[in-house]
Design a protein that fits this description.
The protein is an all-beta fold. It has strands spanning 2-7, 10-13, 18-26, 33-39, 46-52, 58-60, 68-73, 78-83, 92-99, 104-105, 109-114. The N and C termini lie far apart (40 Å).
Length: 115
């Protein structure tokens, strides 16, 4: 089993920055990639970014390319999402996920961007 805990959400003005963290514990040896999704009120959960555990490959949603950066610290079993130039439409609950034989999800952290 893999457990994920997100942190770093909060309230920020448009144009500002936040860094989200996701700490993994449990059977982390089974994880080959981690990523971030988000869900705004009334909308389906959508893909944001993913990174394989070697750090060689990253994928971003078109809506966040050039603004968000996903990274990882393998020694700490932690993945980060650096969010710059935030926009009101980025407001959502952000969820960390881990890709393994089964996928695992954190509880989410709220990001609110004011205009």
């Amino acid at each position: 089993q893999v457990q994920l805990v997100e942190s770093g959400g909060g309230l920020v003005q448009a144009g500002g920055s936040l860094r989200l963290s996701c700490a993994a514990s449990g059977r982390t040896v089974s994880v080959y990639a981690m990523g971030w999704f988000r869900q705004a009120p009334g909308k389906e959960r959508e893909f944001v970014a993913t990174i394989n555990w070697s750090g060689a490959y990253t994928i971003y949603a078109d809506s966040v390319k050039g603004r968000f950066t996903i990274s990882r610290d393998n020694a700490k079993n932690t993945v980060y999402l650096q969010m710059n130039n935030l926009k009101p439409e980025d407001t959502a609950v952000y969820y960390c996920n881990a890709y393994a034989y089964s996928n695992y999800w954190g509880q989410g952290t709220q990001v609110t961007v004011s205009s």
